[in-house]
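Q: I have 160 residues here and want to know how they pack in 3D. Can you give me a structure?
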Amino acid sequence: MRLGILADTHGQVVRTRQAIERLAAAGAEAFVHCGDVGGPEVLAEFAGRRLWFVWGNTDYPDPTWRAELDALGLPWPAGPLNLLLDDRRVAVFHGHERGFRRAVESNENDYVLCGHSHMRTDRRIGRTRLINPGALHRAGLHTVALLDLRTDELLYIQVD
């Protein structure tokens, strides 16, 4: 599976749309948003696509958004995610949560995906690969990432 990874969109709907289009054109089959979404308008851009997401430290999800998420077929995230995709253990955090450091250092995950810092990151800590796709807001260069879970290849994609 090729996974499109985004973070720190902070309500940038147009830039998010461009990112999704570029990731899809590059072969993304599903998407992960690592938080600081900015509102349901951003999540609506993923309509019809497979998406997992977490809230970030600047997200203040209003309970009235539940109906919008339900209409999009998205579950309300209650915290970090633990996914099993292509036999790979993928943990999704924003990066500020309790338990983030443990997830990175425990050697229990193949990948830990995060945002928060607005800085691209790709490094290995033990057997775990820590990936931050960068940000689509408050970053000198707006980037997202495409991860091929079968080959372990990672590609950063610039978004204008």
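Q: Anything worth noting?
A: The longest helix spans residues 13-25. The chain has one domain: 2-158.
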